[in-house]
C-alpha cells in the first residue's frame, strides 16, 4: 500500500502517478468528499483529473462516499462515478455513518461484470448479508432517509458551531483548524510541541476521547481529530476546557 496525502494529490493534480512506477494490480482508494480525517474534499475538476489519470494508467478507483450525505451546503457534491470516463470507478455507499453501524449495510455502484464477481466473492466469504437488515435498509431508504438526513445535518451543523466557539475559547492558543463543510470531525493541528500520546492518555482519565493524528498517517504526529457526533452539546465547552488544562500542564 502506498499512502498518498490529499494535499500532495491536490498539489500535483496533473501528475499524480510517477511515470517510472509500475501500477499493475493497483487500486486507487479515496474518500473524495469529507475525507476522514482531514475533511478535505476534491473539486469536480480534481475528481475528473484523477479519473482520467487512473484510466490512462489502467487503475480502478474505489470511491468511498460514506460521508457525502452529510455535506452541509445545499449544492451537493458530484460523485466521481457520475463524471465522464468513470467506468473504472467503484462507488461505495453506506448507512453506517448516517443511520446505524449495526445494520452493516452498504452498496456498490459499478460495472455489471464487477458486481457479479464481487457478489460471488461475497457469497463464498460469508454467504451474503442477512436479508432482514437488507429489508430494513430498503424500507428506510425508500421512506425515511431524506427527511432523516435533513434533520441530521441541521443537528450536526449546530454542534459544529458550538464546538468551534469552544475551540476558539479554549484551544486557539495551541493550534489551528478549519471549519468542516459536513460530517462530524474537526482536524486540529498543534502549533506548539505536545506529546499527543501523553495527551491521549491524560484525556482518557477524565473521560475525553481524542484521536491522535498518527493513527491515520505517521506524518501527522502534531494533529488530533475531534468528533462531535455523540457528545452532549452541553458538555462541549466543559470538555474542551479540561483538555486545554491538560495541554497547558503537559506542554510545560
TrEMBL record:
InterPro entries: Aminotransferase_I/II_large (IPR004839), Class-I_PLP-dep_aminotransf (IPR050859), PyrdxlP-dep_Trfase (IPR015424), PyrdxlP-dep_Trfase_major (IPR015421), PyrdxlP-dep_Trfase_small (IPR015422). The keyword Transferase applies. Its cofactor is pyridoxal 5'-phosphate. Signal peptide: none annotated. It holds the Pfam family Aminotran_1_2. Residues 22-242 form the Aminotransferase class I/classII large domain. GO terms for molecular function: pyridoxal phosphate binding; transaminase activity. Keywords: Aminotransferase, Pyridoxal phosphate, Transferase. GO terms for biological process: alpha-amino acid metabolic process. This is GntR family transcriptional regulator.
Amino acid at each position: 500500500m502506498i499512502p498518498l496525502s490529499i494535499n500532495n494529490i491536490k498539489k500535483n493534480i496533473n501528475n499524480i502517478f510517477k511515470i517510472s512506477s509500475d501500477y499493475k494490480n493497483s487500486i486507487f482508494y479515496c474518500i473524495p468528499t469529507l475525507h476522514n480525517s482531514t475533511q478535505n474534499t476534491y473539486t469536480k475538476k480534481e475528481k475528473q483529473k484523477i479519473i482520467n489519470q487512473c484510466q490512462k494508467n489502467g487503475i480502478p478507483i474505489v470511491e468511498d462516499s460514506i460521508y457525502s450525505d452529510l455535506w452541509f451546503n445545499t449544492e451537493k457534491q458530484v460523485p466521481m462515478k457520475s463524471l465522464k470516463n468513470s467506468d473504472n470507478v467503484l462507488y461505495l455507499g453506506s448507512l453506517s455513518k448516517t443511520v446505524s453501524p449495526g445494520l452493516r449495510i452498504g452498496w456498490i455502484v459499478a460495472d455489471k461484470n464487477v458486481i457479479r464477481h464481487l457478489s460471488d466473492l461475497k457469497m463464498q466469504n460469508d454467504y451474503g448479508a442477512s436479508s432482514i437488515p437488507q429489508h430494513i435498509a430498503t424500507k428506510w431508504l425508500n421512506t425515511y432517509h431524506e427527511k432523516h438526513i435533513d434533520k441530521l445535518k441541521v443537528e450536526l451543523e449546530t454542534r459544529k458551531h458550538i464546538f468551534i466557539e469552544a475551540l476558539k475559547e479554549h484551544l486557539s492558543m495551541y493550534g489551528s483548524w478549519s471549519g468542516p463543510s459536513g460530517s462530524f470531525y474537526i482536524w486540529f493541528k498543534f502549533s506548539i510541541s505536545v506529546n499527543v500520546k501523553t495527551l491521549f492518555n491524560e484525556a482518557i482519565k477524565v473521560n475525553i476521547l481524542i484521536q491522535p493524528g498518527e493513527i491515520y498517517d505517521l506524518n501527522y504526529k502534531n494533529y488530533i481529530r475531534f468528533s462531535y457526533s455523540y457528545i452532549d452539546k452541553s458538555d462541549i465547552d466543559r470538555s474542551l476546557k479540561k483538555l486545554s488544562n491538560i495541554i497547558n500542564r503537559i506542554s510545560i
